Amino acid sequence: LKAEKMSDVLDVYDAEVKANASAFYDICEKINPFLADLACLAEKGFCMLKDCIEKGLDLEKPNEEAVARHLFHIFHLMDSFRHVKRRAICNQYFNHVCAIMDSLPALTWMSVESNPVAFIQDIIEIAKFYTDRILKEFSQKEDALHVQFVEQWLKTLESLKAFVQKYYANGFTWKKVLPGLSNCDTTDFEVFDIPLPPPPPPPPVSLSSKCKKSVEDIRQELFAQINKGLDITKGLKKVTPDMQVHKNPSLRTATPVCKPAVAAKPAHLTKNLPSAKKDTTKPPVLTCDDKKWLIENHVDNKDIKIEITDMKQVMYIYRCENCVIVVKGKLNSIALDSCKKTSLVFDNIVSSLEIINCQKMQIQTMGTMPTLVLQKTDGCMVYLSKEALNCEVITSKTSEINLLIPTEDGEFEERCVPEQFKTVWSGTALKTTPSEIA
Fold first, then answer.
1. pLDDT of residue 7
2. Taking a C-beta distance cutoff of 8 angstroms, is the pair 319, 338 a contact?
3. Segment holding 382, helix H or strand E
């Protein structure tokens, strides 16, 4: 690094890292304006990192508090994304938001004293948890833009890792003392307000108003004809004797009108028809790919036990029915998707537990659980430990969600999560509170 000039290092950063971030923005712009806004902010984050590198080359190695102030703008950007993630939980691009947001900590590699490359690689593995879900969702829809989204974002993160590997493999190289770092000004920063995408367009204008008029006209005409009484028969066509069978014998010998013959179905449509629907059940999966646990398609399995060896591991549970899953150890996060009548018991979670499209679930935490997210879930009993009483519960399109709170006598007290809400206009803003009957 000594042989490299500071300008050369920054030029490499522009050519390899920022260029990929800019290309990622171009792809997001083609998908959706909302994702384009997020990609624009992510690109700003890479620009902020460049400024931090440029200024850091003139600074002596500071303490942790000073490093945090040095990276203040990046941390503030990450905080803005957290608010967006909470608001976008019902959005169709929720996995895209998570893929970007959970990757942003890679921009703070300067705070890692040793082996920042491994730190960035761990962040990439976490991002792949969401990018894999994007590929799984959009691969069947044959939408190439979303595949490009995944490929370009991972390429951007890999380029950042390669840059750090080349110049700062053992940690950032701080330089001389520069007075004033401890008093780094953190007040001059941009407030990142990311609006959610606009609501879907209204449904097509109903044709009922147009049809109503025509129905009224028909009804009036019908009643007008009924009111004619016997005079209504005056409009009927007169039947002459030659049209009557009993007065015209030649009609009896006429060939009767037959229904047209129905053509036989082609042989290839009736040949080898299956007697029943094909069995589409997929084989059960229980694997660990590096830091990602996959548990899929298990039915009536009451003995699924997982031992966690690394707290950075994540777990994805998909289409399990009538199962019991026990997770020992501390891991980063767990996601349950499209499961039914399944029980999950775990020790500790660092980040969050997500339950999506599930029915009749039972969850029990023996330790910590900072965040619980439930989306499109009907019926879930959540047993909280004393360490998880400060858990933040986020619900959307859910019903019959019950939290069981531990009491001093070792029992549980059941509390229901509200399902109905009352919203009023205060004159300046909307205020929403749980309904009394909820």
1. 73
2. yes
3. strand 378-383
Contact predicate 149/28, CB 8 Å: yes
Give me the mean pLDDT over the 14-23 stretch: 91
Can you give the pLDDT at residue 265? 54
Q: How far is 110 from 67, CA to CA, in rounded Å? A: 8
Asked if residue 38 has pLDDT above 80, the reply is: yes
pLDDT digit string, tens, across residues 340-381: 999 999 999 988 999 999 999 999 999 999 999 999 999 999
Cβ within 8 Å of residue 167, ≥6 positions away: 1, 4, 9, 12, 173
Residue with tokens 């537990």: 353
Tally of CB atoms within 10 A around 143: 14
Using DSSP's 3-state secondary structure scheme, residue 274 falls into coil
- For strands 378-383 and 359-365, give the pairing: parallel
pLDDT in tens, 45-76: 899 888 888 888 777 776 767 777 778 888 88
From the list 122, 213, 120, 209, the residue with the least C-alpha distance to 172 is: 120
pLDDT at position 25 over 60? yes
Alpha-carbon distance of 386 to 388, in angstroms, equals 5
Task: Write out pLDDT tens, residues 313-325.
Answer: 999 999 999 999 9
Alpha carbon distances (Å) from 253 to 245, 249, 316: 10, 7, 79
Residues 197, 31: Cα–Cα separation, whole Å? 12
In this predicted structure, the answer to whether residue 183 has a pLDDT above a threshold of 50 is no
| CATH entry 2.160.20.70 includes domain 285-434 | yes
Instruction: Determine the 3-state secondary structure of 216 from DSSP.
Output: helix
Domain ranges of the chain: 6-167, 285-434
Q: Are strands 314-318 and 392-396 parallel, antiparallel or unpaired?
A: unpaired
Q: What are residue 352's DSSP bridge partners?
A: 371
Instruction: Say which residue the tokens 């016997």 belong to.
Output: 230
| Whether domain 6-167 has CATH 3.40.50.720 | no
Among all chains, which residue has been given the structure tokens 């330790």?
367
Closest Cα partner for 162 from 353, 17, 261, 363?
A: 17
